[in-house]
Amino acid sequence: MQTDGTLGIVGGGTMGAGIAQAAAQAGAVCVVVEPDDASRARGQQAMTHSWQKLDSKGKLPEDIEKLAGRVTWTERLDALADCDLIIEAIPEIREAKVELFRQLDSVCATDAILATNTSSIPIAALARSTAHPSRIIGLHFFNPVPLMPLVEVIPSMLTDSSVVTRAEDFVRMRLAKQTIRAKDQAGFVVNAIFVPYLLSAIRAFENGVASAEDIDTGMVGGCGMPMGPLALCDLIGLDTMLLVADSLHAEYRDPATIAPPLLRRHVDAGWLGRKSGRGFYEYNSN
Question: What is the Cα–Cα distance from 286 to 284, expressed in whole angstroms?
Fold first, then answer.
């Protein structure tokens, strides 16, 4: 079976909505499952706002109404029954993802591919929770999905080779994304290399090496980074950063992957970055 039918997405947050937007812009029809009414409304609004911005700049090749018509939003998981590829994009909590894959295993057709957008959790750990572990694969997109060209393709030791081929073909040919193959280990390729850098920047700020602004300005102006590390952490979400750091440290026990105390205190305080209005920086409602 080819993966050229309806794409299913579970989770209507930043990543799920971003994947749906990118899919619609590539001409794919998709169903987004988000059980929380408020989160579903935010995801729809974010997608529409993004299209309006692109349209105002003349960068949208189709009408917004036509693009939006390719995306169905629902709270029902059984709406994915006829999808041949489903991508999970819920928060980076292992227990929640395991439970979701158990549910998807009973809802979806046995030949459907079940993919996870996890940024750090080993794929085999999720695959073992299902009755069909050979169809589980990692497809790790990057934020913002419509703009970032790369997707990491991560098969586990249990993934069937045909599933890898079908998933990779869908990402390349249907979504027009670039792919790289990654080994099934925490952080895969990009985050295993990049997250220790972000944690190092947090430690530098925590230790008073420089202000947040100067750390970010230094890495942008001195290293050519497109965004400073602390501002990027705020964009990613400090709660997500903490979960990824803990996942990497559990796998490697590398001191560079230990979450700095300041990161934990920010999460304890509810200072999660842009989404909460405060992280290493403060953000207004706009």
Answer: 5
CATH superfamily of the domain spanning 191-276:
N-(1-d-carboxylethyl)-l-norvaline Dehydrogenase; domain 2 (1.10.1040.10)
d(CA 9, CA 31): 6
Residue 284 appears among annotated catalytic residues: no
Helix/strand/coil for 10: strand
CATH class of 7-181: alpha beta
Q: What is the pTM of this model?
A: 0.90
Which of 34, 120, 129, 140 is catalytic? The answer is: 140
CA distances (Å), origin 191, targets 173, 182, 283: 25, 11, 26
Annotated catalytic, 119? Answer: yes
Q: Whole-number mean pLDDT of the chain?
A: 94
Residues of the chain with CATH 1.10.1040.10: 191-276
Mean pLDDT of 64-88: 96
Per-residue pLDDT for 5 more than 80? no
Catalytic residue status for 65: no
pLDDT of residue 165: 97
